[in-house]
Amino acid sequence: MDKTEFKQCFSRRLAEKFAMGVADASPNELYQTLGSLLTSTYSQKWQQTWTDYREAEQKQAYYFSIEFLPGKMLKSNLLNMGWLEMVTEGLAELGIDLEDLAEVEPDMALGNGGLGRLASCFMDSIASMGLPGNGNGIRYEYGLFKQHFVDNYQVELPDKWLHKGNLWEIRKESKAVDVHLGGEVYLVPDAAGNLSPDYQGGMTLRAVPYDTGMVGYQNDIVNTMRLWSVEIPPEEEENYRSIEDRRTVEDLTSVLYPDDSSEDGRKLRLSQEYFFVSAGVQSILRYYKQLNKPIDKINQSVAIHINDTHPAMCVAEFMRLLVDEENLSWERAWNLTQEVMSYTNHTIMAEALEKWSINMMKSVCPRIYQIIEEIDRRFVAEMTGVHDFDLIQRTRIIQDNQVHMAHLAIIGSHSTNGVAKLHSDLLKSVVLHDFYLLYPARFNNKTNGIAMRRWTQLANPALSKVLDETIGNSWRKQPTNLRLLLNYTEDDHVLAALADAKLANKKRLAAYIQEHCGIEVSPQAIFDVQIKRLHAYKRQLLNLLHIIKLYLDLKENPDLPIEPRVFIFGAKAAPSYHYAKSIIKVINETASLINQDPTINNKLKVVFLENYNVSLAERIIPAADVSEQISLASKEASGTSNMKLMLNGAVTIATLDGANVEIRDAVGEENIAIFGLTESEVYQYYENKNYSALSIYDENATIRKVLATLTDGTIPNISAEGYEIFDSLIKYNDEFFVLRDFEDYCLAQESVNKAYQDKRRWRQISLRNIASAGRFSADDTVQRYADDIWQIEPVFAHEDLRGAEHDSYLL
Ligand code: 26W
């Protein structure tokens, strides 16, 4: 479709929807118009894709995730439809800046961090690889809280993202299902003497799906992300007279739990988990049964993926439907369940591995608890005599009145994978070693990837243009072709072009920082970036202590030969995570102190950007020079911001943790600044129980000087928080070995400073990082899931079924 046609259609659609012309329309009306033009255009392909999967009787994968973090979708859909350039120009000719429309769209922030964003990167890649995969999650009324700083403290405000409606979703009333919660279940013998469940009490809720198209990259494929919302079944209305009664129901899908590392253990969270699991599994079986295939062949048509433990009840819900409703034998049902289910672990933090009390489980989903009990009983029986008693007791699902959700997911599926080589090895050797002994063949690694199109073509058009002009545009479809850039390491013209693109992005971010924080930063300075959730193991504190050291050094010697540096933080803390919120306060107070100190001639600036989310990441990452990946080795499962920053030419300072190890392998020792304890050294300390923060403190004057600022008033307004942090290090022995890695970290930072001073060398290192980032494409990651775990393949394989030539996106 050409520009002229688009402009006509756009003006016509605006008139149809809002009875007005371009001149009178607000950015939101223009956004709504453009969005509706897109949805009505790709809906035909969406339907076609669905029909193709059905006619081809294609095996499909269903990615169950309690979090999805798409961010904004307008520009991503325009790019994937091949319309981005044409629409940008067409709108400009109508006097409209596409950026203004993109600004209007609220971020879809239905996730906390890494896990949710990965799920959305995967949705984009699965569709772009033409793979029959669907998302299944919750349509929260309120997304992740909006973060504001008041007096340098984090405050949380509700994210009412739906108040202007959501033009990307379609409410599928006809596809609603009922989910039963609470009550009691009695097993009563039926006529044939088989025990069948008799549900007493509890409540039946209506799960209504809202489908959002997942548009593939210029391949006519549109997959589905189905998000469930709860409603009171019309036939039950009279039972919910009062607002309170109604809220008890509607609360179920009203808000995303803002914790991303420690389970909250609340009944509502467990109810959320069962709600979207039951709704999703029921709708899958309903679809499968329409194919008129034997139920005991469902494993050839369905793959269900459990994204961390939150959807682990898929195992028991699938069993419930196969045994209770499809009357399959337990054994047959169990084999099918294991073949259909697969599980990904995203964290080794003990507090993040969900364990629900038996009573809680019984009160929320009694039949599911009965089934889990039976799975556990049969597991013990099957393993007894084969493996030793203690191993069985450590791996069984129900222990000390708690249901271990990871155990259920591992025992009930055919595949358990980690998200980076080191993480997957730690699962086998430490965290899930007992299960590795039971099921060695099930364990595998799938190193994370990122949606290359969003994190280059959309977020960084300046870099994308230089790449096209240097190596051609094949990298847009095949990111590993970025390696061609290595041929230009000695090409000063290309090095300069890359540096100009980076500088332009830094100027844009500097303007944003000026506007939103009132802080002036120099685009010439090193933009040193740490963007991720605030968590002690991610060690934003280590970054802060180094900044304080630099500040003290500059106070002593303002002519210290360091390159001016801007430290940029983006991080939300879970509202109940007090320690994390104290670190935010201290970073902000340190920032105010340093940014207003005239004596250090602007050599240091600290900027903590509010409300870090996907859209802010798209603004920060292209402007980054240094990528902070400084978690304590063994704690960060993978990380994905590390991949995004590398792809955009930032140089990484990192511990050998998570995917940092594979980034080092990709770019080479001399193009990354590695420091700190390795995971085996960390485990050595655990082994020997001999880590002493106090002795490090006593032996290191610099550390004492730096830590003193936390309590001696150097940093104002942090009396409580300063002591809290000081005590966490000295009194409570520094759980994440911040003091142990401090000196090495400072040395690594000096090497970064030195490298930056050699402009040409720095540009070459940056180039090599861009060139080596192609291997972290989520397109390749999902292809590995498809080949090794889900056994699904692109529908293209059945080209003949789709008829001759496809017409691309015609209006
Ligand atoms: C029960 C509360 C809760 C909520 C979310 C516990 C754990 C989570 C997530 C699993 C935490 C998470 O986002 N993990 C991150 O997953 C990314 C994608 O694989 C990894 O890159 C990060 O290293 C990992 O921390």
Spell out the blueprint of helices and strands.
Elements: H1 3-18, H2 27-55, E1 60-64, E2 68-71, H3 74-80, H4 84-93, H5 98-104, E3 108-110, H6 114-128, E4 133-138, E5 146-150, E6 153-157, E7 169-171, E8 177-181, E9 184-189, E10 195-200, E11 203-215, E12 222-231, H7 243-250, H8 267-290, E13 302-307, H9 314-325, H10 330-340, E14 341-344, E15 355-357, H11 358-364, H12 366-383, H13 389-395, E16 398-399, E17 402-404, H14 405-411, E18 416-418, H15 421-431, H16 433-438, E19 443-445, H17 452-458, H18 461-471, H19 492-517, E20 526-531, H20 540-556, E21 565-570, H21 578-595, E22 604-609, H22 614-620, E23 626-629, H23 641-647, E24 651-654, H24 660-667, E25 673-674, H25 679-688, H26 693-699, H27 701-708, H28 719-730, H29 738-757, H30 759-771, H31 778-790
Parallel strand pairs: 1-4, 1-13, 4-12, 13-14, 14-18, 18-19, 20-21, 20-23, 21-22, 23-24, 24-25
Antiparallel strand pairs: 2-3, 5-6, 7-11, 8-11, 9-10, 11-12, 15-17, 16-17
Helix pairs in contact: 1-2, 1-4, 2-5, 6-31, 8-9, 9-10, 9-12, 11-12, 18-19, 19-30, 20-21, 20-27, 20-29, 21-28
The structure holds ligand 26W.
